[in-house]
Write a structure and sequence with these properties.
It is built from 13 helices and 13 strands. The protein is of the alpha/beta class. It has two domains: 191 residues, Glycogen Phosphorylase B (Rossmann fold), CATH 3.40.50.2000; 175 residues, Rossmann fold (3-Layer(aba) Sandwich). The chain has a seven-stranded parallel beta sheet, sandwiched between helices. Helix 1 crosses helix 13 and helix 10 crosses helix 12. The termini are close together.
């Protein structure tokens, strides 16, 4: 079996979605050592993940465009599918939810990974460029996919709701796991559960995620304002699109806002992130919508209980292992915090049990069966 994979995301500093791709590539290589896996790139992979692709059956194909190679869209439109044709794989895997129309080969079966339908459900929370790209290419991608891989049952249900005629006769696979890199770091750094003790005077509420409108961090800050006498808040997240970060700093600059109790971290090393999860009192997200919610998995695996909205895939991921808030009333969120304080140890245990359902080992084994 020969598989070609769009690796364009691997040239940038990895984020949560990129680590999903890394996990899939690594687990496929281990599960199927007789398969040839070609990762197609426009530049070298990011230095922080160079050591990851050491399996003998993974081949990195770096093929820059002669013109405008620094523009991802240009490379994807005019170079990617040319390289696919050269590799002549049995399957081409797009981890970015879309296929590009030029030079598609009907003899190659396409696999499309769908992370979410935010562009359709909450278009106002996406950048204009990404929204236009998805609106133009998503239907085309579904039509030309042999297999559609969804990260959650929630995402699959959204596909059925909005694109039933496009997926009605398609093979739709559902599965995701705790990213392998995080799992390995957690095993290596069990002694880091005290990494941040002493740096904060109070118990810590932790949030991890890109700072963009969909994450609804402004609402999180309003909740925290009510409990800042008892907690510190750590927000770990790279700047996304839009004015969300500007709005956050505006709130923090308000005269009586407890700014000294809030720590903003643009990014941290993986080992430090593991320590933050392990040391936090609990993890809390107020995101409007998630196709999966990787930080929820990371938190539960680290013994950090979770509070999240009772919506989208977050409700599916948490199950009964955390506290789900059904409204956007601040008082309901405060009640969830008080409930967590009273029953934290039980939720930690439930989280450990829940994370067992999210193993890339099991997911990839199931996926391979439908390819064979």
């Amino acid at each position: 079996m020969r598989i070609a994979i769009d690796g364009i995301r691997l040239s940038r500093k990895p984020s949560g979605v990129t680590f999903i791709l890394i996990s899939i590539i690594k687990q496929l290589a281990v599960e199927c050592p007789e398969w040839d896996i070609y990762v197609l790139l426009r530049t070298n992979i990011h230095p922080s993940i160079e050591q990851i692709f050491f399996e003998k059956n993974i081949y990195l194909v770096i093929s820059p465009s002669k013109f405008f190679n620094n523009i991802s869209m240009i490379w994807s439109l005019f170079k990617l599918n040319t390289e696919v044709r050269k590799v002549k794989p049995d399957y081409f895997f797009s981890p970015n939810s879309i296929l590009f129309p030029l030079f598609l080969n009907k003899n190659i079966k396409n696999i499309v990974f769908v992370h979410d339908l935010v562009f359709r459900v909450f278009p106002e929370t996406m950048s204009k460029l990404n929204r236009i790209q998805m609106m133009l290419l998503f239907r085309f991608s579904l039509r030309n996919a042999s297999i559609i891989w969804c990260n959650s049952n929630y995402t699959k249900s959204e596909l059925s709701k909005y694109y039933f005629k496009h997926i009605n006769k398609k093979q739709v696979f559902v599965g995701a796991g705790l990213n392998i890199d995080f799992k390995e770091a957690l095993k290596k750094n069990k002694n880091l559960n005290k990494i941040n003790s002493g740096q904060f005077k109070k118990p810590v509420i932790l949030f991890v995620g890109t700072i963009e409108p969909r994450k609804n961090v402004r609402f999180l800050l309003r909740i925290f304002e009510q409990v800042s006498n008892a907690y510190d808040l750590i927000i770990v997240g790279a700047k996304g699109w839009g004015d969300e970060e500007k709005a956050i700093h505006s709130i923090l600059s308000e005269h009586q806002y407890p700014r000294d109790s809030v720590t903003l971290l643009r990014s941290v090393e993986l080992e430090t992130l593991v320590g933050l999860y392990s040391n936090a009192s609990f993890y809390m997200t107020t995101a409007i919508n998630e196709g999966l919610g990787l930080p929820l998995l990371e938190a539960m695996a680290s013994g950090c209980p979770v509070i999240a909205p009772d919506n989208s895939a977050m409700a599916e991921v948490i199950g009964d292992a955390g506290i789900k808030v059904k409204s956007w009333n601040i008082q309901d969120w405060l009640a969830a915090i008080y409930l967590m304080e009273a029953d934290r140890d039980r939720y930690i245990g439930l989280g450990y049990n829940r994370i067992a359902n999210y193993s890339w080992d099991d997911v990839v084994k199931s996926f391979v069966k439908i390819l064979q």
